[in-house]
Amino acid sequence: MHPEIDRFAHLSSPLHRLDARAKITVFLVFLVAAALVRHLPGALLALGLAFWWVVLSRIPLSFICRRLKAVMLFLSPFLILLPLTHPGGWEAGLRQGGVIFIKGLAMVLVVFPMFGTTPFHVSMKALASLKVPERLVAMILFTYRYLFGFAEEVRTMQQAARARGFKPRSNRRTLGTFGNLIGLMVVRAYERTERIYQAMLARGFKNKFGTLSEFSFTWPDAGKSLGILLAAAVLVGVDRLWPKFFG
Amino acid sequence: MHIADGVLPLASIAAGWVGTGVVAGLTLRKAPFEALPKAAVMTSGFFVASLVHVPLGPTSIHLTLNGLVGIVLGPLAFPAILVGLILQSLLFQHGGLLTIGANTLMLGLPALAAYKIYALVSRRNFSHREAVAGFLAGSLAIFFSGLLLALWLMTAGREFLTIARLALASCLPLMVVEGLVCAAAAAFLAKVKPEILWRKTHAVDESVLP
Question: Which of A99, B17, B43, B158 could serve as a FRET partner for A147 with CA atoms 20 to 30 Å apart?
Fold first, then answer.
């Protein structure tokens, strides 16, 4: 498990230097524009733009490709099944499945320049200053904070089970063992909640989070943001006008 | 079980966010602020537990565990699942970013139902009631999620009917797997640390009870 989306946040690129609040906002606008796309040329344009931003962000492609497996798994049923089941024939199904697949891929790629170029806690602070409810942001940060320790603990538990000769198979016994293992995990998390909370209070936690980073929105930020917004507008424009001229 | 970006039309995405905002607001507003760090630590534990690979025939799957989350966290299961899905989307790119709203309704509402089912069944007096209630809560949570998944796909257009049916059918083996895991976990918790289960006292705080 590699939960570090921000593993390459320390690099330097035009996207790394973009103000985190602006980055999240304008890429969100682009994602909405991409969701509006209905035709193949628009989907391909979205994919091209997303890929260009990924290249600009200098995040290694090997890191990204490893993370695309899951989304391929969720999107490929549409590419395979829509041609077989579309009421308008296989050609219409293939076209629609292709648009969904390419669009989906483009939208996942946008996540890397959007959240991979800022340290995670700074992204969360940016969300809070963008009026995402404070309680939600606090919960995300806490959950994130404890993921790493618990992941280590699950690994230890699985190792212990293997050392006792446990081999996972598709049977009731295996599922029962997993149930107990998960139950134990929940008990451990529960036993820790009280201690963690008291430790936080002892360190002066006043129901608020602070970070040392400050945001500043500068002229280059404005330029880059406008560029991305313009790309979103062009994307919707191309998608709406293409069938009129070429369809 | 996730809906990726690129599948749903914008209207469904907006509806998902509105529904999630309303339910999350209702369940979070009642909670005192100090309940949140504790619920978050539990969320973290569930998140990690859901990453365990479980073999199923020739392949392996990740558990959803939304039924178990409901049993343990009660009403706070909904924001817990919202947070879990946000992190899954941001950290692993499982499920889309715009579809977080739709996905949270799909998994979170069944978690609330599981909490009610578990409370109703485990209150009765018969042998192995914790395990039976756990099985029902775990497997029905998956069934309801499958139904909601099919409904979301139907909002994308009539041509998705067959895919929606297939998605629902593929839930049946998952129902058995999640039901058995949830049954074992519920029986384990009832034996080892009954105060964790929401119905007795509960995991977070007295004052959060609806």
Answer: B17
Distance CA B98, CA B78 (A): 18
How many independent structural domains does chain A possess? 2
**β partners of residue B60:** B55
Alpha carbon of A103: minimum distance to chain B alpha carbons (Å): 5
- Domain total in chain B: 1
User: Which tens digits make up the pLDDT trace of B109-148?
Assistant: 999 999 999 999 988 888 888 899 999 999 999 999 999 9
C-alpha distance from residue A128 to each of A7, A23, A117, B32, B110 (Å): 22, 14, 18, 19, 28
In a domain, B140, yes or no: yes
Asked whether the beta carbons of A118 and A213 are under 8 A apart, the reply is: no
The answer to whether ipTM exceeds 0.85 is yes
Mutate to test the interface with A, among B28, B41, B50, B71 (most CBs of A within 10 A): B41
Q: Which amino acid is at B13?
A: I
**A136-172 residue pLDDT tens:** 998 998 899 889 889 999 899 989 999 998 888 888 8
